[in-house]
Amino acid sequence: MKPDPPPVQPPGGSARIQDEAELATRARAGDRAAFGQLVERFATQARRVARAVLQDPHDADDAAQDAFLAALVKLDQYDPRRPFGPWLMRIVANAATDRRRRRTVRQVEPLAPELTGGGPRPDRDAEQSALGDRLRDALAELPERRRIAVVLFDVEGYSHAEIAQILGIPEGTVRSEVFHARRRLRELLKDWR
Amino acid sequence: MTGPMTPFDHRPDVQLGEALRAALDAGDHPAFVAAVLARADRPARTMDVLATWARRGLAAAMVAAALAGFLVGRGGEPATLPEDALAPTSAGAASIALVTATRPPDASVVFASFVSGSR
Q1: Of A35, A155, A160, the CB nearest to B24
Q2: pLDDT, tens digit, 9 for 90 and up, residues B34-43
Q3: Full-prediction pTM beyond 0.80?
Q4: CATH number at residue A68
């Protein structure tokens, strides 16, 4: 059996790991305030990762909630020497994937060619909103693992090694997934530069 | 989108990251946190408890079915009859017992019936 790889240091280093480990220990002992702090700290990230998988914001929030509750139950499995984020994000990604499999898969229509052209630009808010819609559609076109990888890397700032742990795949595969996702997203977004 | 950066770049793409973050942010952070904490504090719902029971019941039923299958496969216990029914006192006694028995007879009963009938 291969030994565990060395723990990956998150931004903030060992002090942050220690802080998260302490919160996790207290939460495991029934301290709801400590659990609340962990939820507060990781909620935004968890919701974004879930939404990258599920698209629908309500489904994504339900999956993120399920993940936090599952994490609370499984806290005894968390290794306090390691950062909490990747451990939690693995649970989030699994919860979102499970939920996506349980429901009817929404068919994503490819972007109409006229939508990919330039055209007149409305005001900035409308433009941002349209960009958001377009990005979500573009993400939805990507394979699920690719979507999660690019969001974890470019949005949440996880390293390739951490994403490899979260997704349970080799680091080289993570690099490849991020590469392909970026290439596709940049293609779709080049008109918005 | 980011000029000199290539998809191969090992650094996070700040512009792409910001655009994705804006697209994926759901908002109303306090409401979400409150909902998670409320669910964590809520006692197990009836349906959750029933679901737990259902899983246990299903497991018990599977064990029982496997046990029953094993016993049937081995042929089960032989039927037992009262001693006097087995005694070949008359030609018909064992035969009557054989016919009226509710369970399959033991081979010795069939043999006794055959012997008494052949006398």
Answers
A1: A155
A2: 999 999 988 6
A3: no
A4: 1.10.1740.10
